[in-house]
Amino acid sequence: MDTNETMSVDILAEENFTTTGDECTNELPTVQEYLDGLTLPIAIIIAATVLLSIGTFSIFFKNAYHILHRTPKQFKTKSILLLTIYPLITLFGVVSVSVPRAFFLCDTVMHVYFMICAYVFFSLCMQYVDGEDALIKSTDSQTFSLRTPPLCCFVPLFKRAPVTKNRLRFVRMLIMQLPVVQTALFMALNVVFVEDYPNFNRIILYFVPMIVISILLGVWGLNILVRMLAPLYSDLKLMGKYFVLQAVLILCRIQPLIIAAIVSSSISHCAFPNTLQVQKNAIFQLCLCFEMMVLSCWASLLYKSPSIIGPG
Known about the structure:
Rhopdopsin 7-helix transmembrane proteins; Organic solute transporter alpha-like protein; mainly alpha; transmembrane helix; Ostalpha/TMEM184C; single chain; 12 helices
């Protein structure tokens, strides 16, 4: 009788262990655990991201060489800083795929650098038009408008107005808050990620409204800037340069939600160390590295010709 009971308990314990092992877990593996359980699809993804990163770096060095030799001196530094975002993202994409526990730190670096690039883009635009004072003097029409996406629905009563120092300062502050606010929020989230990872996905929900509001205000300021300058300086290709920069934000922030939904509904096997989070991140970084290489090629065409100052 005792033997039968003991066997029953062992069988139940084994079934419970198997069930628990098959369930998805939020725990992220160490590098050693990750390498020990490395599967062929993940290995192929890592190799593909490395190759895409090398390709993107090659495009970047070619673009940087061209800018250093053909672009007017005052535009060189900021143009290279803007083009650096594409290889930087692919580099941290490789790190994120290779070291699962570093994925949020890598995401933070990508995110913060984009916010810095947003202000660099504003400064470059001001250099293109020879400064704020020159812009104000050259625009004698109603070219400033707050009725631009994504907040155009909230300011329907504002009409087009002349460009003034205060209005340009308002746009500058909208864009300048991006690197400041986003860096502070993501630094706090990184502390939470390290100290309380099991509850990280719940705690981050309290940060999301502040992150979204800050991004919306910054994108609003960039849209005001580009829509104000693009018609006046068509040779600068500002709309295209802005789009290849804004695409980085869209791909880094919206695309993960789409991939997560697809992966969650299509992948059932997520045994440790290849958890659902690891698989989602690997597929996302693979897509992102490919997209950054495409955007880098596009940006090279936009920054290829020396910039011309003056109304189009």
